[in-house]
Amino acid sequence: MDMIVIATRLEALGNPTRLAIYRALVRAGAAGLPVGKLQERLAIPASTLSHHLAKLCGCDLVSQTRESTVLRCRANYQVMRDLVGALEDECCADAACGADVGTDAAVA
After folding, report:
1. Does 76 fall in a domain?
2. What are the pLDDT digits (tens) for 37-77?
3. Which part of the chain is the HTH arsR-type domain (predicted)?
4. For residue 38, how many other CB atoms are within 10 A of its CB?
5. What is the count of structural domains for the chain?
6. What whole-number distance in Å separates Cα of residue 105 and Cα of residue 108?
7. Does residue 80 belong to any structural domain of this protein?
8. Residue 100: inside a domain
């Protein structure tokens, strides 16, 4: 995965409000949440939510679909897996690691 794409996605998730939005959508599962329900759940103004959703959609972490008068938001799980996988793939790339990397790398 391209470093600029990784940085853009991590930057988007680096904002506490966007992280809360993304977390709510991840927790909602494949059905996602209507924008109104998301706004209600997070107790943030509509304009603030719209601004942050635009940033998350812009880097493909979130998708939106229109269902009549409802705008439904969903976390893009494949993009999330790719992002985490790209970081995980780098684990100990420049070091001779043993099989027990998981616990030692997390502590360091």
Report:
1. yes
2. 999 999 999 999 999 999 999 999 999 999 999 999 999 99
3. 1-95
4. 21
5. 1
6. 5
7. yes
8. no
Provide the 8-state DSSP code for 15: S
Domain holding 50, by residue range, is: 3-89
Separation between Cα atoms, residue 75 and residue 57, nearest integer Å = 9
Under a CB-based contact definition with an 8 Å cutoff, are residues 72 and 32 in contact? Answer: yes
CATH code for position 28? 1.10.10.10
Q: Is residue 99 part of a domain?
A: no
19 has pLDDT over 90? yes
Structure token digits, residue 89: 């793939």
Tell me the backbone φ, ψ of residue 28, rounded to 5 degrees. Answer: -70, -20
Q: Cβ contacts of residue 59 below 8 Å, gap of 6+?
A: 5, 8, 9, 12
